[in-house]
């Protein structure tokens, strides 16, 4: 998002115009209700067009638009795997088998370190 704001401010300058551009966000209501947001992620934008729409409703709308508006490229959006999972404990690291997870060990200086 920092780069989005940088480009939004620089693009008019490069084109010889004054002012700045607005940055669109892509956070949905499910992320907001779960508290899944950070200072510089997709929830921090000037305008958030899907900010009050749930993920389920958004997928239904995209599936409808694919058929009714004849936009087959939208099929990829509905079938896409999320880049970042929003459920606690569902990160890529936690999907490793339990035997390969890091276990605490004690070093020679008797402090705890993670292997």
At a glance:
With 115 residues, this protein is mostly helical. The chain has four helices and two strands; from the N terminus they run H-H-H-H-E-E.
Mind sketching the topology for me?
Elements: H1 2-14, H2 29-34, H3 55-68, H4 74-79, E1 104-106, E2 112-114
Antiparallel strand pairs: 1-2
Tell me the overall shape: globular
Measured on Cα atoms, how large is the radius of gyration? Answer: 21 Å
- Unreliable runs: 91-107
The total count of helices amounts to 4
Number of strands: 2
Describe it for me?
The chain is mainly alpha-helical and 115 residues long. It has 4 helices and 2 strands. It has helices at 2-14, 29-34, 55-68, 74-79, and strands spanning 104-106, 112-114. It starts with a helix and ends with a strand.
Keywords:
115 residues, mainly alpha, 4 helices, two-stranded antiparallel ribbon
């Amino acid at each position: 998002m920092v780069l989005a704001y940088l480009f939004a401010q620089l693009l008019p300058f490069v084109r010889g115009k004054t002012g700045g551009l607005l940055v669109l966000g892509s956070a949905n209501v499910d992320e907001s209700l779960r508290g899944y947001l950070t200072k510089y992620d997709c929830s921090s934008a000037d305008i958030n067009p899907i900010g009050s729409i749930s993920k389920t409703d958004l997928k239904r709308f995209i599936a409808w638009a694919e058929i009714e508006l004849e936009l087959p490229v939208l099929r990829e959006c509905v079938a896409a795997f999320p880049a970042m999972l929003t459920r606690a404990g569902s990160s890529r690291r936690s999907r490793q088998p339990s035997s390969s997870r890091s276990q605490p060990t004690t070093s020679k200086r008797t402090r705890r370190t993670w292997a």
